[in-house]
Amino acid sequence: MTEYRSRILQLAFGPMIGHLVNTALRLGVLDRIGEGGRSAEELAAEGKTDLQSTTRLLRALTGIGLLTETVPGVFATTETGACLRTDHPESMAYVARLLTEPSMLRSWEHLGESVRTGEPSFPKVFGTDYFSFLKDNPELSENFNIAMSQGTRNTAELLPVACDFGRFGTVADIGGGDGTLLAGVLRANPALRGILYDSAEGLSQAAAKLEEAGLAGRCDLVTGDFFASAPAGADAYLLKSVLHDWSDDRAATILRHVRSVLPPEGRVIVVEAVLPDMADGREGGMNYLSDLNMLVNLGGRERTRDDFAELFSRADLSLVSVVPVGPEVPYFVIEAVAA
Predict the structure, then answer these.
(1) Which CATH number does the domain housing residue 271 bear?
(2) What is the chain's percent helix, strand, coil content, to nearest 5?
(3) Which UniProt keywords apply (predicted)?
(4) Dist. CA 190–CA 135, nearest whole Å
């Protein structure tokens, strides 16, 4: 029974762990420790924080596996903790900060109301929807964009292997943000051209990203609203982690706009998680936590294969295949054609 009690306590402490991680990131603790070890005294002096409280914070980070205390009072990052440094090649610092931001966690306090009503709680807490809130908070908006890039990095490497983009002449990435995903597709397919379509805020870092990748000449940046239109001129329309942000009605609206410009032989390629028909505990339940996060913060949802088939049918599209992106990422390539 001790094992079960311990697991229950771990779960109950979950929200506190989120605040612990967010605080460590805001204080820059992992970045200042870097690749070597640093003492609590050094970190407290540099961060202008109380020494005893800093030591307690560092020991808590050690307790959850992000740091190790090499000698009394001296701390180094573990392999997991190193991924929360912003300079690490596999950094997830901005993703972790996004998911642990108080503005996102506050909506979870009203999960019960969202379960009762089926509506997001974020607008009730903050008086506006999540993306409007980001637009009014530039620092959070920048963090969101970088987090989306970090969360897409592995998918950008694996997607061109899982999906044959050589079939197409031009691919339009709808809601593609800074272009991390599209850049991966274009690099793997030298003859392919791209269209990157997003809001002005979403595209704010795209030009620099594509220029750095040497792809600016092969990709057009188009500012727009996918609830109002989709850009013409592509034979493949790519949507990664877009539809799950929205309710079925709003997601169907996005797809209808894509369908209106889809050529007869074109393809719609959705990259998202696909829930199994029956719930399981794989991936620590992250897809189900993401599903509820979509509910409370955005009003969106994760979907099963049948859910996607139904959603496509509402936009005069037909699902043709669902294949995993790869073992290292929790996404699937979901292809649809004109019905």
Answers:
(1) 3.40.50.150
(2) 50, 15, 30
(3) Methyltransferase, S-adenosyl-L-methionine, Transferase
(4) 35
Neighbouring-strand partners of residue 174: 197
Q: How far is it, in rounded angstroms, from Cα 330 to Cα 271?
A: 10
Structurally, how many domains does the chain consist of?
2
Closest alpha carbon to 23 in 66, 57, 55: 57
pTM as predicted: 0.91
pLDDT over threshold 80, residue 282: no
- At residue 329, the pLDDT reads 83
Mean per-residue pLDDT over the chain, rounded? 94
What is the separation, in whole angstroms, between the first and last Cα of the chain? 55
Single residue among 41, 56, 88 that ends a domain in this structure: 88
**Tens-place pLDDT, residues 124-181:** 999 999 999 998 999 998 899 899 989 898 899 999 999 999 999 999 999 999 999 9
Tell me: pLDDT of 60 over 70: yes
One domain, residues 67 and 155: no
Q: Point out which residues pair with 76 in neighbouring strands.
A: 68
- Residues forming the active site: 244
Angle between helices 51-63 and 14-26 (to 10 degrees): 120
